[in-house]
Amino acid sequence: MPRMKLALEKEYPFTCEIQVRVGDLNYGGHVGNSEMVGILHDARVALFRAMGVHEGDLGDGKTGIVMDDLIVNFRAEAFLGDILTVGCAFGEVGEAGFRIHYHVTGAGKTVAVAETGLVAFNYASRSIAFLPSAFKERARAMGSGD
C-alpha cells in the first residue's frame, strides 16, 4: 500500500507551543499516535481562539465543525517535557469545508506533518452547513501562501 506523504507548506501563519505531558506517551516512551491527534486538536482550538471563534461556533451562532479526514506523517519522536511548536495554515477553503495543514516541530526537528479536512456542521439540524462568510475570509487570509 503506498504511503500518503504530506509536503511542508510554504508558511504557517499561526503557531502555538504545546508541552508533552505524561499522558501523551505510549508504551514506547514517546508521543503516541492517538495523542498526536489530541495535540493537533489543541493547536486547532488555539488557532480558532486566535480567530475569535471556536469549534462549536464559527462566528454566526449556529455553525460548528466536524472532522472529515485526517492524515499524520510521523517524522521523529517527541518525549516527556518536550515543547512542541505547532504551525497551522489553512488550505483550500470551500463553501462548506476547509483543510488545515500542521507542522509539528520539537528540539529542532520535524516531529510530524499533518492535515485535517473539516466540514461546517449545524448541530441544531444535525446537517452539513455553509461556512459563514466572515470565517471564510479570515481562513483564506491565514492560508499557507500556495
Automatic annotation (TrEMBL):
Pfam families associated with the record: 4HBT_2
Key words, A-Z: Hydrolase
GO terms, molecular function: fatty acyl-CoA hydrolase activity
Family: Belongs to the 4-hydroxybenzoyl-CoA thioesterase family.
Protein name: Acyl-CoA thioesterase FadM
UniProt source species: Desulfoluna spongiiphila
